[in-house]
């Protein structure tokens, strides 16, 4: 019996080791794949490869307008900025460093263009985004209930409550929540996109989650 128990334990530990090694190999392959992909993107951008640009536009045709709508609150403006972003990508493609995650670089370009547009047309929205209140009070964009591709795809009462709560968040906190949970960027990448210290990103994320929790509970009441 003792031998049998020992054999089971050995097989169990062997299984644990096998899983660990497979995870390590999978991670290695994933990292290598990502590095190869960013190198191919960098090479294609330097060569102004139209096929690559078409592929990238298709890949981000929903995510990028959705993020721009989060910043501007206006579908038409988001669509204009979407086009301007890709023009800028084509112009600045030689500056892309394959050590960067492409979407971090892409979203940084889009955000800079959005800030320029807000500076011209919606200074109150720009001020709320770049200069959030110290007390964390909600400084909202003007209320614009314009449908977006994300709105069209999203359905259901729960989704509407989530969107309602998000729209009532301070713009700086809303942006961080969208980048983290909707666009799946990590905190370091978010800090690079919005050009803000990592500690500030963490603070906005915590404050945003706490404010979202309260607002979402109100939406459900």
List the helices and strands and how they pair.
Elements: H1 2-46, H2 50-59, H3 63-72, H4 75-92, H5 102-121, H6 123-130, H7 149-153, H8 157-167, H9 171-182, H10 187-194, H11 198-220
Helix pairs in contact: 3-4, 3-5, 4-5, 5-6, 5-10, 8-11, 9-11, 10-11
In words, what does this structure look like?
The protein has 221 residues and is mainly α. The chain has a single domain (48-220), classed as PhyR, sigma-like (SL) domain (Butyryl-CoA Dehydrogenase, subunit A, domain 3). It has 11 helices and no strands. It has helices at residues 2-46, 50-59, 63-72, 75-92, 102-121, 123-130, 149-153, 157-167, 171-182, 187-194, 198-220. Helix 3 (63-72) packs across helix 4 and helix 4 crosses helix 5. The longest helix is centred in the first third of the chain and has 45 residues, at 2-46. The protein is globular and about 55 Å long. 27% of the residues are buried. Mean pLDDT is 75; it is low at 24-32 and 134-155.
Alpha plus pi helix count = 11
What quaternary form is this?
Answer: single chain
Strand tally: 0
pLDDT < 50 stretches: 24-32, 134-155
Key features of this structure:
221 residues; Butyryl-CoA Dehydrogenase, subunit A, domain 3
Brief digest:
Helix content is 77%, strand content 0%. It is mostly helical and 221 residues long. It has a single domain, classed as Butyryl-CoA Dehydrogenase, subunit A, domain 3 (Up-down Bundle).
């Amino acid at each position: 019996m003792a031998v049998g128990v020992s054999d089971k334990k050995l097989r169990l530990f062997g299984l644990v080791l096998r899983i660990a090694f497979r995870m390590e190999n999978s991670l290695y392959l994933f990292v290598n794949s990502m590095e190869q992909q960013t190198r191919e993107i960098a090479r294609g951008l330097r060569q102004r490869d139209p096929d690559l640009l078409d592929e990238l536009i298709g890949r981000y045709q929903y995510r990028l307008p959705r993020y721009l709508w989060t910043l501007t609150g206006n579908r038409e403006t988001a669509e204009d900025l979407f086009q301007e972003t890709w023009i800028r990508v084509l112009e600045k493609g030689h500056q892309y460093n394959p050590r960067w995650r492409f979407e971090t670089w892409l979203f940084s370009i889009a955000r800079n263009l959005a800030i320029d547009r807000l500076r011209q047309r919606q200074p109150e929205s720009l001020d709320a985004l770049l200069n959030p209140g110290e007390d964390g009070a909600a400084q909202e964009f003007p209320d614009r209930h314009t449908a977006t591709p994300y709105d069209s795809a999203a359905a259901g009462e729960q989704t509407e409550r989530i969107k309602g709560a998000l729209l009532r968040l301070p713009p700086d906190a809303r942006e961080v929540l969208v980048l983290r949970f909707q666009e799946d960027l990590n905190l370091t990448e978010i800090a690079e996109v919005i050009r803000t210290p990592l500690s500030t990103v963490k603070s906005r994320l915590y404050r945003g989650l706490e404010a979202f929790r309260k607002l979402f509970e109100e939406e459900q009441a």
